[in-house]
Amino acid sequence: MLINEGVFVNPVVSPGVPKEDSLIRFSLMATHTFEQLDIAIDKIAKVAVKLGVLAGESVIK
């Protein structure tokens, strides 16, 4: 879903993390601007809320 938003992340699953866990790896470059980071973070939060892994009211604006 994030790739559809223009944000590329790498999933980390077992055996990289415990079997019951998972996470996403978000890579930054020195050439990314603060505006680009803010946009990407907003998109990640939007998708996380949509998937139910982040409560909507916990997203700080």
Draw up the topology in text.
Blueprint: E1 10-12, E2 23-25, H1 34-51
Antiparallel strand pairs: 1-2
Distance between the terminal alpha carbons, to the nearest Å?
21 Å
- Please tell me what the overall shape is: globular
**Largest sheet entry:** 2 strands, antiparallel
SS-based class: alpha+beta
β-strand number: 2
Mean pLDDT: 89
Strand order of the largest sheet: 1-2
Number of helices: 1
Poorly predicted tracts of residues: none
Give the topology string: H per helix, E per strand. Answer: EEH
CATH fold naming: Aspartate Aminotransferase, domain 1
CATH superfamily: Aspartate Aminotransferase, domain 1
CATH class call: Alpha Beta
Percentage of residues in DSSP E strands: 5-15%
Tell me roughly what share of residues is in helical segments. 25-40%
Give a structural overview.
By secondary structure, this protein is of the alpha+beta class. It has one domain: Aspartate Aminotransferase, domain 1, CATH 3.90.1150. The chain contains 1 helix and 2 strands. The protein has one helix spanning 34-51; strands at 10-12, 23-25. It has a two-stranded antiparallel sheet with strand order 1-2. The protein is globular, with a radius of gyration of 13 Å. The two termini are 21 Å apart.
